[in-house]
Amino acid sequence: DRLSNGKLLVIDYKTGLAKNFLGRSGEPTDLQLVVYADALHADLGGLALINVDSRIISYKGTGTEGGPWKARDEEEWAKTLESWRSLVREAMQNIAEGDVRINLLNSASVGRPLNILSRMEEQKRVD
After folding, report:
1. pLDDT at 59
2. What does the DSSP assignment read for 97-119?
3. How far is 108 from 38, CA to CA, in rounded Å?
4. Which of 16, 23, 92, 114 is deepest in the core (most CB within 10 A)?
5. Are 50 and 20 in contact (CB under 8 A)?
């Protein structure tokens, strides 16, 4: 989508139980939206989850404007998004170099940021 300032807003629609994009620390709880953001190579104004179920639609995200969140100033947003993109690039580089370890002993909260890249939770269900 596009915000009123013309920048892109990347949205991931989820069904079922509502999920948060950011944890209490202000960091993403899942890197899926950040992976999309990094793949776009565009000037992004925000990232958001829209949770849809039969009772309610909730909207959670962060960025410069456009949503029911406290807007970040342009400089803060650019730095934050770049730090998150760096996490994704580092994980992808490690995988490209052959590091595909999955530590099944980690808790879900430890592994959650890399779920999109590792399929750790799927492996736990199989085992």
Report:
1. 85
2. TT-----TTS-HHHHGGGHHHH-
3. 24
4. 114
5. no
